[in-house]
Design brief:
By secondary structure, the protein is mainly beta. It has one domain (about 40-195): Jelly Rolls. Helices cover about 10% and strands about 50% of the residues. The chain has 1 helix and 12 strands, in the order αββββββββββββ. The protein has one helix at about 15-35; strands at about 40-50, 55, 65-75, 80-85, 100-105, 105-110, 115-120, 125-135, 145-150, 160-165, 175-180, 185-195. β5 (about 100-105) and β6 (about 105-110) form a beta hairpin.
């Protein structure tokens, strides 16, 4: 019969006891610091007439969030869209049947991107603010994406917008691209975060 040693051995001296407690405290302090610091910010970008806003998802996280604040298009009444890349950001998938999405109960089974808003206005105090979530992009399956926020249209009315979508390809996604259906991203703040899936 083979006996396995216990997982915890009783200290044989006061010094050994202190050593064990010191190591335990250090480990827990590091874990607590990690929790207090929150989810790491991986990238911050400010738009200034950009055609697209591209983000690399680094760090191997299970989930990524992109916070979009006051993104205003250069062209009036355009839709914000999302595309993915599986080749390191060299190209972004934009085929006619690459994506499927449901926005506020309206389904599009085949599209060149995922719509994350309705028609956004380009005037002062208009634009789009939303939170985009990308789930397990490193897995070689259909990458699922959600977006929830609001936009202001050309009439100045604020509208809630919620989208669920996916990239219809069994491939790991490395980059995310945001753009409007026409024109550029005139202004806006974009923050990419990696989301921790464990506390310790």
């Amino acid at each position: 019969m083979s006996l396995h040693p216990p997982l915890y051995r009783t200290p044989t001296s006061v010094a050994e006891t202190l050593t064990q407690h010191t190591a335990s405290i250090a480990s827990h302090t590091a874990s607590i610091a990690s929790i207090v610091q929150g989810d790491p910010v991986l990238a911050v970008a400010t738009a200034s007439g950009d055609t697209t806003m591209d983000f690399e998802m680094t760090g191997g996280y299970e989930e990524y969030h992109i916070h979009v604040y006051d993104a205003i298009p250069s062209t009036d009444s355009v839709v914000a869209r999302l595309r993915t890349s599986s080749d390191g950001g060299v190209t972004f998938d934009s085929g006619a049947t690459d994506y499927t999405w449901d926005k506020n109960g309206s389904l599009d089974a085949d599209d060149t991107g995922i719509a994350i808003s309705g028609s956004v206005g380009s005037g002062a105090n208009e634009g789009l603010s939303t939170l985009i979530k990308i789930f397990r992009p490193s897995e070689t399956n259909y990458t699922l994406i959600t977006a929830a926020g609001h936009f202001v249209n050309i009439s100045g009315y604020i509208t809630q917008s919620t989208t669920d979508g996916k990239r219809k390809q069994n491939a790991a996604v490395t980059h995310i691209q945001l753009l409007f259906s026409s024109g550029n991203v005139a202004t806006g703040l974009f923050v990419l975060k990696g989301i921790r899936t464990t506390l310790l």
